[in-house]
Every structure is written in C-alpha cells, then in structure tokens.
Amino acid sequence: MFSNIIKKDTKNRVEAAQLDPQLIPDHVAIIMDGNGRWAQNKHLPRVAGHKQGMEVVETITEAASDLGIKVLSLYAFSTENWRRPNEEVNYLMGLPNKFFSRFVPKLIRNNVRVNVIGDQSQLPEKTQEAVNNAIADTKDCTGMVLNFALNYGSRSEILSAVKAAAIDVKKGRLEPETIDEQRFSQYLMTASLAPYGDPDLLIRTSGEQRISNFLLWQIAYSELVFTDVYWPDYQPEDLYQDLLVFQKRDRRFGGIKPNEGENKNK
Ligand code: FPP
Fold first, then answer.
1. Is 80 annotated as belonging to a binding site?
2. Which of 24, 38, 78, 119 is placed for a possible disulfide with 232 were both Cys, Cβ 3.0 to 4.6 Å?
C-alpha cells in the first residue's frame, strides 16, 4: 500500500546486509527483552539495563525510520510489569520523561510521530504529561509512527474492545451482524494505525520465545523472529539481520503460493 523510501546513506548498509529494499515491512513490532540479564552479566543494577535499553530505542528508531518502515511498535511496559520491585517500576515510569525530553527534537527532525497504546490513566501524572507532550509535539510529523506500548496488555485491550462494541450494540449504534474483523479492529487501541496494517514482523530479543500478551489480535499473521541478542546490545545490524530472516520467509496468509494449486497431472 505504501512505498518505502529508504534514506540515501542507509542504502549502502541495506545492500551490505543483502536486504531487498522492495521488501522492507511496513510495520515492525519489537518485544525489547533482556535488559535485566544484560545488566546482571555486567554486575550492574537492573535499571542500568533499562537505561542502556532507552539509548537503543533511539538508535533503532532512527534505523527503522531510515529504512522506510512505516510503524515501529515497541513494548515498553506491560500491564504485568507492575509486579516488579517499586524501585524498578519507578525507574521505568521515569524513562518516557528522560527519553522524550532528550529525543523529541530529533524525532521531529526525522519526521517521526509518537503514538501510545495502553492504559495511560494508570501512569504517574508526570509520565502521562511527558507522553502527551511528545504526542502533541510530533503530531504533524508524517514519517514513521513510533508506537509505544505503555501499560499495555493485549487481553485487556481485547476485553475493552468487546465491552465498547457491546455498549454500541446496546445503544443501537452497531448491528451485531455487521461486526467483522475490520469493524472489530476499530475498537482496539491500534485503530488509528489501521491504514498501515498489522505488524508484518514481530521481533523478540534475548532468546525468550513468548508473546507475553503483546498485540495478540494484531499479530495473527505476523512473522515471528526470535533473536538471542539482549535489547541493550541490539544494533541496526541486528535489525537488518532480522529483516533478512523476514524477507526469506514465505508469507501465505493461510493460502497457497501461486501455481502451487495446479494439478500437475492434468
Ligand atoms: C524487558 O527486559 C524490558 C522492559 C520491561 C522494559 C523495556 C524498556 C526499555 C527498553 C526502555 C523503554 C524506553 C522508553 C523510552 C519508554 P527485562 O527487564 O524483562 O529483562 P530480563 O528478562 O533480562 O530480566
């Protein structure tokens, strides 16, 4: 639907990585995992991993935008992450403030628009303020959408969507017979991203092979790539490598390849 425009100086790196510039996915989602283990391996407190993780968010955002990716969805804080020690939760809640106060000018220069999914009302006021300011400051950017999942959980997102649709049915605004996948998607937190499509590729770093309640509806047909690299070590070259794995996959969306259905005996 969209033509991906690769930034000039990224072209050489794309060639070196043997990536096909025509097959850069529109929407990439990442479960950024391994911050704690990265820090522990270095005998540092866990929050040092999150701090380095934030730096990597900047690097990968720029790399993704330079590649012409249309949406980068990052799982920054799940509804389950509240179970962590207070000190760690407080640190994580402070990250959007740190990140946006440093990087919003660069996001604007790169034409990147910030979007957030998740229940923002449960976040500390300062975090909400940082998020809302970043959304407002980048609202006119027309390039990549940097979509942060903050206090996000997919089951709760789906439940809220079901409830909202049920209310619309009750109020006579929605005919149950007309609820199809497209209409239902409009009740999800990703509704505004619909023009870009669901994630083509979901990457999880750190060697874990789980989805952890991230975009369950939206990744129905995504390619999944699991890499052993811890998020704080993740570099643009790792992204290129994961994109190469994606490009070698054969996406059939439940169908078959053209010609595959031909009866060769005929
Ligand atoms: C998972 O690693 C990571 C998180 C729960 C937090 C991710 C957050 C960032 C990378 C920074 C986000 C930046 C902004 C701007 C909001 P883990 O702690 O579960 O690692 P472990 O599995 O090794 O313990």
1. yes
2. 38
Q: Is 94 labelled a binding residue?
A: no
pTM beyond 0.85 = yes
Residue in the block written with tokens 């012409």: 68
Quick: pLDDT tens for 204-225: 999 999 999 999 999 999 999 9
Q: Is 50 annotated as a binding residue?
A: yes
Ligand 1: residue whose CA is nearest its atom 16: 96
Which residue among the candidates 26, 66, 81, 238 is catalytic per the annotation? 81
Is the shortest distance between the CB of 96 and ligand 1 below 6 Å? Answer: yes
Active site (annotated) includes residue 81: yes
- Look up residue 53 and give its two tokens: 């993780």
Dump pLDDT digits (tens) for 99-158: 999 999 999 999 999 999 999 999 999 999 999 999 999 999 999 999 999 999 999 999
Produce one character per residue of 143-172: b if its CB has 16 or more CB atoms within 10 Å, e if not.
Answer: bbbbbbbbbbbbeebbeebeeebeeeeeee
Taken in order of first residue, the domains within the chain and their CATH numbers are 31-152+198-205+219-247 (3.40.1180.10)
Residues 157-200 have pLDDT tens digits of 999 999 999 999 999 999 999 999 999 999 999 999 999 999 99
Residues 6+ apart with CB under 8 A from 153: 78, 79, 80, 118, 213
Q: Are strands 201-204 and 145-152 parallel, antiparallel or unpaired?
A: unpaired
Cβ of 232 less than 6 Å from ligand 1: no
Protein residue whose Cα sits closest to atom 24 of ligand 1 = 36
